[in-house]
Design goal:
The chain is mainly beta and 433 residues long. Helices cover 3% and strands 55% of the residues. It has one domain: Porin, CATH 2.40.160.40.
Length: 433
C-alpha cells in the first residue's frame, strides 16, 4: 500500500540517480587498453520503526559493465518488502473508534486512547534502473537512463539524462541533469473523492478510479578541486509535480469546536471522518553544498541542503561523515544527520464541524513541523579477494509538534504527534571480476 512518502520517494531517488554526475569531481578513467570488467554492488537494508509501525526489508543490487574508452553500462534492481502500521490521520479519542478499511469491504477498531494506525500497510516493490554513460569529446561526458517501479497500487516510469564538462585542467566540472516521470496510482478500493466522508462497509459511492501525476526534475551544479586535499561542490535543483498528489489512505477527524472531540458518526463508522485534499501542483527549489577534506587518509564529508516549496514547507539538512582508516584494509565512519522542517500551509490536525471546508487540508505527519536526527556508525573492510564489505547501524529519531492554534479543548491532553524512533541496519558487499 502506498503512503505519502512513498509517492515522492521514487521521484526523489530518480532525481538523485539522474544527477550522479552533478557536482562530482573529475570521473575516474578506465585505461583504454584495459579489458572490460564487471562491478557488482549489493546491499541488504532493514528499517524498523518502534511501536509496531513501518518495517522495510530491502535488497538492492547494482551491476556495472566497464567498457574501454570510459563507457559504462549499469543496471540496478531493488526489491522492497514493507509491513506494519502507519498513522491514518485521525486523532486519538477516549473511546474506541471504528474505521472502514481502504478496500471498503471491512472495518477495524482502534482501542480508546490509542493513536489510530492503518495496519493494512503491506506491499512489495520491485524497481529497476538502467543507464549508459560515455565520454563526449575530450573533456565532457553524458549519460541517459531509465527507471521503473511497480507496487500493488502504484506504477512509476521515468527517463533521465545528464551532461558534465570539465574545465581548468579538470579541476572544475559544470554539470546539468534532467528527469521526467509519470506515476500512476490505482488505490485499493479506488481513489476517494476529496473531503468526502468515510462511509460504511460496502458503500463505495465516494470512490473514483485510478489517477496519475507528472514529475519534472532539473539539476545544475559545479564542483571545484581547491587543493589536493579539498573538493567542494554546489548544486541547484528544481522539481515540479502536477496531478494526483493526495494520499488516498489519509483522512481527518471532524471535531466539535468546543471540546475538540471527534463527532459521533451516523453512517456506519463510529466517528465522522473526511478524506484529505492537497493541491494538484507542487514546486520545490533546493540548494545543496558539500565539502570533502582528506587529511592523512582521514576523510571529512560535510553537506548542507536547503529546500523550499510552494506548499510553504522550508527544510534544512546538515550531514556529517568522518571516515577513519585503521589497519591496512579497514575503516570506520561515524555519521550524523540533522533535519528540520516547518508544516505545510494546509497542514491541519482536524476539521471543525459546521465550518466551511478549507480548500486543502491534510493531517499527514510528514507534512507537519518536526525535527529528525540520524546517528550511526559504518564499519568496512577489504576481504582476501579484494572485495569490499561494510555494515552500517543507525538510529533515527523524529520529534514533531502541532501548531498551538490548531489544538482544541481535550486535544491538548492527547499526544496526536508522538515521537518516532527507528533502527536502520545495512550490510553491503562489493566485488569486481
Amino acid at each position: 500500500m502506498l503512503t505519502g512518502s512513498r509517492q515522492t520517494s521514487i521521484s526523489t531517488a530518480l532525481a538523485t540517480a539522474t544527477c550522479t554526475l552533478l557536482g562530482s569531481a573529475a570521473p575516474s578513467v578506465v585505461i583504454a587498453e584495459e579489458e572490460p570488467k564487471w562491478d557488482f554492488n549489493t546491499s541488504l537494508l532493514y528499517y524498523g520503526e518502534d511501536k509496531s509501525r513501518v518495517r522495510d526489508l530491502s535488497l538492492k543490487a547494482i551491476v556495472r559493465r566497464l567498457f574501454t574508452d570510459d563507457r559504462v553500462f549499469s543496471f540496478g534492481l531493488t526489491l522492497d518488502s514493507l509491513t506494519g502500521a502507519t498513522p491514518s490521520g485521525a486523532i486519538r479519542q477516549d473511546v474506541a473508534q471504528t474505521f472502514t478499511r481502504p478496500s471498503g469491504n471491512a472495518e477495524y477498531t482502534v482501542p480508546a486512547g490509542s493513536l489510530p494506525l492503518d495496519d493494512t500497510f503491506l506491499d512489495t516493490r520491485l524497481a529497476i534502473t538502467a543507464a549508459w554513460q560515455q565520454p563526449y569529446g575530450e573533456s565532457s561526458q553524458f549519460s541517459v537512463g531509465f527507471s521503473g517501479s511497480k507496487e500493488y497500487d502504484y506504477l512509476h516510469l521515468g527517463l533521465n539524462g545528464s551532461f558534465a564538462k570539465d574545465f581548468n585542467k579538470r579541476n572544475t566540472t559544470l554539470s546539468t541533469g534532467i528527469s521526467i516521470a509519470r506515476d500512476e496510482f490505482d488505490p485499493v478500493g479506488g481513489a476517494p473523492l476529496p473531503f468526502t466522508a468515510m462511509l460504511a462497509v460496502g458503500d463505495t459511492s465516494n470512490r473514483g478510479g485510478s489517477d496519475d501525476k507528472d514529475v519534472l526534475d532539473i539539476v545544475a551544479g559545479v564542483s571545484q578541486v581547491i587543493s589536493r586535499n579539498l573538493v567542494v561542490q554546489a548544486n541547484y535543483s528544481y522539481s515540479s509535480e502536477k496531478g494526483y498528489l493526495n494520499n488516498p489512505y489519509k483522512f481527518l477527524s471532524v471535531v466539535d469546536g468546543i471540546s475538540g472531540d471527534t463527532i459521533i458518526g451516523t453512517a456506519g463508522t463510529s466517528h465522522v471522518l473526511r478524506f484529505e485534499n492537497r493541491p494538484d501542483e507542487r514546486t520545490k527549489h533546493s540548494l545543496y553544498t558539500q565539502a570533502k577534506y582528506n587529511r592523512g587518509g582521514k576523510v571529512l564529508d560535510v553537506s548542507y541542503r536547503y529546500m523550499s516549496d510552494d506548499w510553504d514547507i522550508d527544510s534544512h539538512t546538515v550531514e556529517l561523515r568522518y571516515r577513519v582508516p585503521f589497519g591496512q584494509d579497514k575503516y570506520y565512519e561515524p555519521h550524523l544527520r540533522w533535519y528540520t522542517q516547518n508544516e505545510a500551509e494546509f497542514y491541519s490536525l482536524s476539521l471543525l464541524e459546521g465550518a466551511a471546508l478549507p480548500l486543502y487540508a491534510s493531517n499527514d505527519y510528514r507534512l507537519g513541523d518536526f525535527d529528525a536526527l540520524t546517528a550511526g556508525l559504518k564499519f568496512g573492510w577489504t576481504t582476501r579477494n579484494n572485495s569490499a564489505m561494510s555494515i552500517r547501524v543507525e538510529w533515527y529519531r523524529q520529534v514533531g509538534s502541532i501548531p498551538g492554534e490548531q489544538i482544541i479543548g481535550n486535544q491538548a491532553e492527547r499526544d496526536n504527534y508522538p515521537d518516532l524512533n527507528a533502527l536502520i541496519v545495512q550490510l553491503s558487499y562489493r566485488f569486481k571480476k
